[in-house]
TrEMBL record:
Protein's name according to its UniProt entry: Endonuclease III
Enzymatic reactions: 2'-deoxyribonucleotide-(2'-deoxyribose 5'-phosphate)-2'-deoxyribonucleotide-DNA = a 3'-end 2'-deoxyribonucleotide-(2,3-dehydro-2,3-deoxyribose 5'-phosphate)-DNA + a 5'-end 5'-phospho-2'-deoxyribonucleoside-DNA + H(+)
Naturally occurring in which organism (per UniProt): Eisenbergiella massiliensis
Classification via HAMAP family: Nth
Keyword field contains 4Fe-4S: yes
Length: 225
């Protein structure tokens, strides 16, 4: 089967399983709230971030408040999200840049977004996709792991994975792919052990075919004993 046809089948099955609605798992009312929530989400669950930001955005109701925040106090406010020293420092510096360079508004371009403290391509693409509806591929741990297993990339570096996926996925699935793959990663294609027996993509998955072959070989070896 050609790669293009295989990918079309994968996307069709993902659409059928998880739907085609664009959903953001981080609670937010505007661009700056999503930006800060995404910074907080590094090495932290979306559910935990949503608990923290519920009170955080009441205490700091705008980027100007974060820009003037006391570092030690903000650290304690976000402590439960982990890595709170760096996150607090980056949030303050990021919001200072937003105030001083962008008039308090969250910019749209990838170049402007990644110029902000604590904002890499992943965070920038979350903003571009969810706020500005710009086709973008967000590469998190689920997307990197499962894209490798599906044979859509051989890269480990998130930026290289992003560029590989941009070459093979249609633009209308760039944002959707991330959401669907997160759902697949949480439900079935887990790390380190995938629940391949429960997966609906096995027909098109090189990882499954490689490992199911190993299981067959092992069974034959055990039988010979």
């Amino acid at each position: 089967m050609r790669q293009k046809e295989r990918i079309e089948n994968i996307l069709k099955l993902l659409d059928e399983r998880y739907g085609t609605d664009i959903i953001c798992y981080l609670d937010h009312e505007n661009a700056w709230q999503l930006l800060i929530a995404t910074i907080l989400s590094a090495q932290c669950t979306d559910a935990r971030v949503n608990v923290v930001t519920k009170d955080l955005f009441r205490k700091y109701p705008g980027v100007e408040y974060f820009a003037r925040a006391d570092l030690k106090e903000l650290e304690q406010d976000i402590r439960s999200t982990g890595f709170y020293h760096n996150k607090a420092k980056n949030i303050i510096a990021c919001c200072q840049d937003l105030v001083e360079k962008f008039g308090g508004e969250v910019p749209e371009s990838i170049e402007d977004l990644t110029s902000l403290a604590g904002v890499g391509r992943k965070t920038a693409n979350v903003i571009r996709g969810n706020i500005y509806n710009e086709p973008s591929i967000v590469v998190d741990t689920h997307v990197k792991r499962i894209s490798n297993r599906l044979g859509l990339t051989k890269e480990e570096d998130p930026v290289k994975v992003e560029y590989d996926l941009m070459k093979v996925l249609p633009k209308d699935h760039w944002i959707l792919y991330n959401l669907q793959i997160i759902a697949l990663g949480r439900e079935i294609c887990k790390a380190p052990t995938a629940k391949c027996d429960a997966c609906f993509l096995t027909e098109f998955c090189p990882y499954y075919k490689k490992n199911s072959g190993k299981k067959t070989t092992n069974k034959k070896t055990e039988g010979a004993r």
